[in-house]
Amino acid sequence: MIKSELVSRIAAENPNLAQKDVEAVVSSVFDEISKALSEGHRVELRGFGAFSVKDREARTARNPRTGEMVPVAAKKVPAFKAGKELRDRLNDGYDPS
User: Fold this and answer.
1) Closest Cα partner for 29 from 53, 55, 48, 54?
2) Mean pLDDT of each 10-residue bin along the chain, 97 residues long
């Protein structure tokens, strides 16, 4: 599912909300999650999962085309850990009730 599909589904389930308003809310949520992660914070959405930032050490990698060894700088990467409710839905099947 892409962002526009998410907006369309939410707008369809909530006919009292304009699609433009739904798009603004979805964008705001994603922006706030991104902002929090860029500041090094953890974002936890109960029942869904937790986003965090992990540090990757500097390392030496191999260029697959030339075989040459190249240095790769240390960096921060986003990580996601699914919550129990999400894992249960995936393993037990989806039951909307």
Assistant:
1) 48
2) 94 94 96 96 95 96 95 96 92 68
Contacts of 17 (CB under 8 A, 6+ apart): 10, 11
End-to-end distance of the chain based on CA atoms, in angstroms?
22
pTM of the model: 0.76
Domain 42-87 CATH (choose: 4.10.520.10, 3.40.50.2000, 1.20.1530.20, 3.40.190.10): 4.10.520.10
Which residues are within 8 A (CB) of 1 and not within 5 positions of it... i.e. 6 or more apart? 9
What is the token pair recorded at 19? Answer: 């699609």
CA distance 48 to 81: 9
